[in-house]
Structures are given as C-alpha cells and as structure tokens.
Amino acid sequence: MRRGRSGAAKPYGSVYKWNSARNAFELRERKEPDHRGSHLTLKHRKSNLGVRMSDLNLTLQWDAAGAQFMPEQVAATVVMPVVDQIVDVLETGPANPRQIADLLSDDDVVYNEIDVRRELKTLLGLGKVTALGDGSIRLVQPQKDVVESPLLPDQ
C-alpha cells in the first residue's frame, strides 16, 4: 500500500488460506491520518456460518503508552441489499455471475463470484431470474397486463 496501490482483499498466498478460514476480516485505511489519528475500517469479508457483520469504523491513536483503537461515528450511507443490486445490474441485460461480481465490486467492497451465485440461487427460487444456455442470467420479464375493452365487439 505504500507504493500507492490498494491492498489485497484476500490473504496473499495459496487459496487454501482463504478457503480454510471460517471468518475473514480486512483492516483498511479509510482516509489520510489527521490530528485525531489514523482512520480505519474493519470489514468482515467472509463468514461461513452466518451473516457478515457491518463495517466498523475505528480511529487508531498513538500515545506514550502504545496504540489505542477508538470507535468512530461516520455518517451512515444507505446501501442497497445485494439482491437488489444484482437485479439492477441485470436490468441492463443478461450477465454471468463473474461479470455481475465485477460490476458490483469497487474500491470499498469486493464481491466474490461465490457470494453472487448464492444470491442468484435465491432469485432463481423466487422466479425473478432465469439461467440461459450460455451460463448467463437474465431477469424474468413479468407478463404485460391484458386490458379488455368493452368497446370492442366479440369475435
């Protein structure tokens, strides 16, 4: 990160490290340090057995006794649920799970293809999406409302 590049969202090395962990966290600097200390965000990146925790914003303060982590209040931003974000992506057209994960990911949040597949399974069960032969997913288009007019004669 000292070279101006962002850190890795996953541990460096074999995929075994990521797969064997039941929970994985990432500590990332949120903004430049100031007079109050370093501003960090603790992100819960993986959870095998439950729901991931929401981000925890911290301030790291150094003094003569050592380092101290203090919770920090940050203005809350409304984040759309992942399922709704996937539906938004699919409204532009069909996409495969890898493409959806890439489109949803940004500098702050990285979505894994496995997470996207889990959410797509839910959407498939609800009948909101369908799988195409090439492995891509598309939204199921609701049937158009049929309006009967009493002004037209029966044939």
Please summarize the sheet with the most strands: 4 strands, antiparallel
Query: Level of helix content?
Result: 10-25%
Number of helices: 4
Question: How many beta-strand segments?
Answer: 6
Uncertain parts: none
Q: Remind me, CATH topology of the largest domain? A: Arc Repressor Mutant, subunit A
CATH class group of the largest domain: Mainly Alpha
State the CATH architecture of the largest domain.
Answer: Orthogonal Bundle
| Helix-strand category | alpha+beta
Strand order of the largest sheet: 1-2-3-4
Rg from alpha-carbon coordinates: 22 Å
Q: Judging from the principal axes of the Cα atoms, what is the shape?
A: elongated
**CATH homology-level superfamily of the largest domain:** Winged helix-like DNA-binding domain superfamily/Winged helix DNA-binding domain
What does this structure look like?
By secondary structure, this protein is α+β, with helices and mostly antiparallel strands. It folds into two domains: 15-71, no CATH class; 82-139, Arc Repressor Mutant, subunit A. It has four helices and six strands, in the order αββββαααββ. It has helices spanning 15-20, 82-90, 97-104, 113-126, and strands at 23-34, 37-47, 56-63, 66-71, 129-131, 137-139. The strands form two sheets. A four-stranded antiparallel β-sheet has the order 1-2-3-4, with no helix packed on it. The protein has a two-stranded antiparallel ribbon with strand order 5-6. Helix 3 (97-104) packs across helix 4.
